Amino acid sequence: MKYPSSILFLAMISGISLISWILYASSINIAAFAQSSTSGEIGNLPVTVNKALFQSGEIIVVKGKTNPNLSLEIKVINPNGAIYRSVDVAASSAGDFEYQFKLGGKLAIGGIFKVVVSSGTGLEGSATFEFVPPGWVAEEFMIDGKPYHVRIMSDEKPDWLGEISPDTQSKSLIMHLSSEQGVALKMELDDRVIATDPGKCFVVQADGEPVDVTCSRVDHDTTLISLTIPPQTSELQIIGTSIAPEFGAFLVPIVVLTAISASIVAGLKFRKWVT
Hints:
About 20% of the residues lie in helices and about 45% in strands. By secondary structure, the chain is of the alpha+beta class. A hairpin with a 2-residue loop joins strand 10 (about 135-145) and strand 11. The N and C termini lie close together (about 10 Å).
């Protein structure tokens, strides 16, 4: 049986879209692209942490609910994938469990930490949070009503730093400044907030003029940028190749096309079977 060329074309387009998405995902590591930090649950075992962002010295509280008296293992994994801590806990007679800790030491680096809770019976859940180590501050801004952060090397919020705002059209972050003097800036950018092509540095402009910048990878999700902001700069623009909301917008049409294609192919197979 020959299928109409239009249907074959749609199936081909859907396949190409799916392959494009896979390649896109592998290039920017979209494991948790929705936010730079989140405190939710993933898996079949509900897990939460008490906040999405922690400074040095703050207490991190991991909570969840499972089967009564169940033995559990809690692993805390740092942004480099190293196990920061692994402990065994037991759920209460009501199924509740809780574990509290603080971050410190060499493995307590800045970035997104993951907490994985598992049992020997196949249950597992996870949650993530962002950690800001000593000597750094986190600056928050909003994209589509959701909070995101960049980390700036400073003991406290710089007095010259104003609002940070995203520009999704130019795929950039815009920092509003009020410094009369030149300022040395070191800032960590998470790929799940703003990213550039692999192996390439961000483009930075001060009041529309190019600025020399160096980039280095801190971990598989984070880039450290270093530059000197010229005196009397009022606007610093950091330009990448993707910014947070793009993932969701990019994925929706792919899912729709793939679903339509699958439905058509399934319908054709059914039609062939019944005839």
